[in-house]
Design goal:
TIM Barrel; eight-stranded parallel beta barrel; globular; binds acetamide
Length: 474
C-alpha cells in the first residue's frame, strides 16, 4: 500500500485504480448509500475519475466507510481546479463484532471531556465498544440516587500511594493530595449518546463482589466487618475487603444495577468478578451460614451464588452478563460473555466451556504495561508490550476447533490507570498502541511491521488533531 494512502486500520481489500478524481470538496461530493446487496457490516468505496461512491450494508457500516474515506481524502493533492483523490477500490468488513477499549476511570478519575476524546479515537480506528470500569476499591464514579454516599464518600480518597507497589510491601508513602470525582447521570447519558452517534456501545462495569472497598467505605454494612469503618483504598493491589453475602447486600446491588441499566442502553453489562479473595467469607459467621445453607463445599463458591443473585436484574431486563475470566470458575451462567484477561489460555478455557469470549489477554493488550525500557519510560505497572508486540498479536489462539473459534466474538485492549493520573499519561499509554490493536481487531491484512509504520507515521497527525497525547515512535 502506498504511503500516500495511509489508512489505519488498513481495509481488508484495497486495490489502487488508474487515475484520480478531481473535486473542490471531495468530502461533500462523494455519493453515500446504504444498499441491500452488502452484508450488514460490509462497505465499499470506489473512487474513479468520475467520482467517489461509498456504499454499505447498514448505517453503521456507512460510518466505517466514512472513517476510511476521510483518511483516503487525506491523500488528496491540490491541483489547479480542486484536489485530486487517487482512484481506488476498497471492499471491507470487520473480522470481529466486539472491538473494544476498556478505560479504568476508578483508579484515577478522568474528566468527561477526555472520555469524549477517547471515543473520538475509538471511532477513528473503527472500533465499537467503550468499556467503562466505573467502580473499584479506590473510587466509585457513577451517581446512584438511592445511595448518595457511594459518590459523596466513595468517590474520594484523601491521598494516594506514591511510586511502585511490590507484593511484599507493607509501608507506603503518600502524595498528600485528595483525589476523586464522579460522573452524574447526565454526564454518563451524554457520553452514551456521543458514543452512539459514532456507532459505539458503552458497556458499564460495576466490579463485584471484590474490588468493592470504596462502596464498603461509603456503606460499612456491605462489608464483612460492618463495625469497622474502612476508608476508600489509597494503595493499589487487591483488597481483602469484599462484599458480604447478606440478603440486604444482594438487594443493595440490585438497586444499584437497576439505576445503571437506566443510564446505559448497552445489551451487555459487566459485573467484574475478578480477583475476589474469599478470606473474609471463610471466617464470617454470616458467610459460613450461607455456605452451609446452600450446601457449598468452599467459601469461594459464594462468589458464583452472589453474582447469580444480582445478575437476575440484568436477565429480567433482557441484558447480558459480561465478566472477567475468573467467572468461568464460579459456576456462572453459560450465556455470560467472558473477557479473558489472565492469559490467552484462559480464553481457550472459556470457549471450550461454551462461553462467547472477548480476548483481552494481559500479555498482549494491557496498555498499562511498559512499551519501552523502564529506565526511560514513565512508571508503569510492569510487563513489556511495545508497539510491535501489539501489531503481532493473534486474537485467536492456535489449536481451537472451528466451533470454538466462532465463540471468540472479539478483542479488547485495557487501560488500567493506577499509574496514569491524567489524560496526558493515558494518551501516552494508549496511543499509538491503539492503532496497532485496531489492525488486529479489524482483521487488517498483515504485511510487515515496517509497512504498518509507514502508514502510522502520517496517521499520528490525525491522533494529534483529536487533541490526544501519544507516545512518539522510536
Ligand atoms: C483485571 O486485570 N483484574 C481484570
Amino acid at each position: 500500500m502506498s504511503e500516500q494512502i495511509a489508512i489505519v486500520p488498513a481495509p481488508r481489500e484495497l486495490v489502487a485504480g488508474d487515475g484520480q478524481w478531481v473535486s473542490t470538496d471531495p468530502a461533500a461530493d462523494a455519493v453515500r448509500t446504504v444498499v441491500e446487496n452488502l452484508g450488514e457490516t460490509e462497505y465499499r468505496i470506489d473512487v474513479t475519475p468520475d467520482g467517489a461512491r461509498l456504499s454499505a450494508g447498514s448505517e453503521e457500516s456507512l460510518r466505517y466507510a466514512e472513517q476510511t474515506y476521510r483518511q483516503l481524502v487525506d491523500a488528496a493533492t491540490p491541483v489547479e481546479d480542486g484536489v485530486a483523490v487517487p482512484a481506488v477500490h476498497i471492499a471491507d468488513a470487520p473480522r470481529f463484532g466486539w472491538r473494544g477499549v476498556m478505560l479504568d476511570v476508578a483508579r484515577h478519575f478522568l474528566p468527561k471531556e477526555f472520555v469524549l476524546r477517547v471515543i473520538d479515537a475509538i471511532a477513528l480506528h473503527r472500533l465499537n465498544v467503550l468499556h467503562l470500569h466505573l467502580t473499584d476499591d479506590q473510587g466509585w464514579r457513577v451517581q446512584i440516587d438511592a445511595f448518595p454516599k457511594l459518590t459523596e464518600v466513595g468517590a474520594w480518597r484523601p491521598e494516594t500511594m506514591v511510586g511502585k507497589m511490590s507484593h511484599d510491601q507493607t509501608e507506603f508513602s503518600y502524595d498528600g493530595k485528595r483525589h476523586g470525582g464522579f460522573y452524574t447521570k447526565d454526564d454518563l447519558r451524554e457520553i452514551v449518546a456521543y458514543a452512539a452517534d459514532r456507532g459505539i456501545t458503552v458497556v458499564p462495569e460495576i466490579d463485584l463482589p471484590g474490588h468493592m472497598q470504596a462502596a464498603i467505605a461509603a456503606y460499612p454494612e456491605l462489608g464483612n466487618n460492618p463495625d469497622s469503618q474502612l476508608g476508600v483504598r489509597q494503595i493499589w493491589g487487591i483488597s481483602d475487603d469484599v462484599l458480604n453475602v447478606n440478603d440486604e447486600t444482594v438487594e443493595f446491588v440490585r438497586t444499584v444495577l437497576r439505576e445503571v441499566l437506566e443510564i446505559f442502553p448497552s445489551p451487555y453489562i459487566h459485573l467484574g468478578g475478578d480477583e475476589c479473595p474469599d478470606v473474609q467469607w471463610r471466617t464470617s459467621e454470616v458467610a459460613q451460614a450461607r455456605q452451609a445453607e446452600l450446601g457449598l463445599t468452599d467459601a469461594g463458591q459464594l462468589q458464583g451464588w452472589f453474582t447469580e443473585q444480582v445478575a437476575a436484574v440484568l436477565t429480567e431486563d433482557g441484558r447480558r452478563l459480561v465478566g472477567w475470566d475468573e467467572m468461568v470458575e464460579t459456576d456462572c451462567p453459560k450465556d455470560a460473555v467472558i473477557m479473558a484477561w489472565r492469559s490467552a489460555q484462559r480464553g481457550e478455557i472459556a470457549v471450550k466451556a461454551g462461553h462467547e469470549t472477548v480476548m483481552a489477554p494481559c500479555e498482549s493488550v494491557y496498555f498499562d504495561y511498559y512499551q519501552g525500557d523502564p529506565a526511560t519510560e514513565p512508571l508503569a505497572i510492569g510487563g513489556n508490550i511495545p508497539l510491535e508486540k501489539v501489531y503481532d498479536f493473534e486474537v485467536i489462539p492456535a489449536g481451537l476447533s472451528a466451533e470454538e473459534e466462532a465463540r471468540i466474538v472479539g478483542t479488547q485492549c485495557q487501560i488500567w490507570t493506577e499509574y496514569m493520573e491524567d489524560p496526558e499519561r493515558v494518551g501516552y499509554m494508549l496511543l499509538p498502541r491503539l492503532s496497532a490493536f485496531a489492525e488486529r481487531a479489524w482483521g487488517s491484512p498483515k504485511a510487515s511491521y515496517d509497512e504498518f509504520l509507514t502508514r502510522l507515521r502520517p496517521h499520528l497527525a490525525r491522533i494529534e488533531a483529536l487533541g490526544l497525547n501519544y507516545r512518539p515512535l522510536d
